[in-house]
Design brief:
- There is one protein chain.
- This protein is α+β, with helices and mostly antiparallel strands.
- It folds into two domains: about 55 residues, no CATH class; about 90 residues, Multidrug-efflux Transporter Regulator, Chain: A, Domain 2, CATH 1.10.1660.10.
- It has eight helices and four strands.
- The radius of gyration is 20 Å and the shape is elongated.
- The protein starts with a helix and ends with a helix.
């Protein structure tokens, strides 16, 4: 993908984020007023559901596990979903959530309006380094892992 395509994608994403409510209201009105639109929307949803049931479409194909770029404090940051982060560590998503709730690892880089967790590449690298050290030392206490994570984040 070229630079111009990335800029267009970033612009489209930024536009959608800033106009989300208006666009959502417009779609809802169109859905309620236009039977043809409603029929096509239902057909698309049923096709996605059928493909998903047959195992031909995964979550990434539906769009919410695809890495994206979000503006954080005026800086564009590439973020990855919790599943990708868990896979990088060789852990389950539930483990990552547990670590967050126990404050073993810091809060995610970004949480979208639906509550999905997104992690920046620097964040993922820091936790991965701490995780590798934890495994290499054959440590078992989560307090030790938390200290290693804090040390990695302190270096940034």
């Amino acid at each position: 993908m070229g630079d111009s395509e990335n800029k267009v994608g970033s612009y489209n994403q930024a536009y959608y984020v800033s106009h989300r409510e208006a666009l959502s209201e417009k779609r809802a009105k169109l859905y309620s007023d236009n039977s043809g639109y409603r029929k096509r929307a239902k057909a698309r949803a049923m096709e996605r559901y059928r493909l998903q049931r047959e195992g031909k479409v995964g979550r990434a194909a539906r769009g919410y596990n695809i890495p994206k770029v979000v503006p954080i404090d005026g800086v564009d940051v590439r973020v990855h979903c919790v599943k990708e982060f868990a896979d990088k560590l060789g852990r389950r998503v539930q483990t990552i959530r547990s670590w967050e709730s126990k404050e073993i690892i810091p809060s995610p880089t970004f949480v979208d309006d639906r509550g999905r967790r997104w992690y920046g590449e620097e964040y993922m690298d820091a936790v991965e380094k701490a995780h590798k050290k934890f495994i290499e030392k054959n440590a078992v206490r989560l307090e030790d892992f938390k200290a290693m994570v804090e040390k990695e984040f302190g270096r940034k």
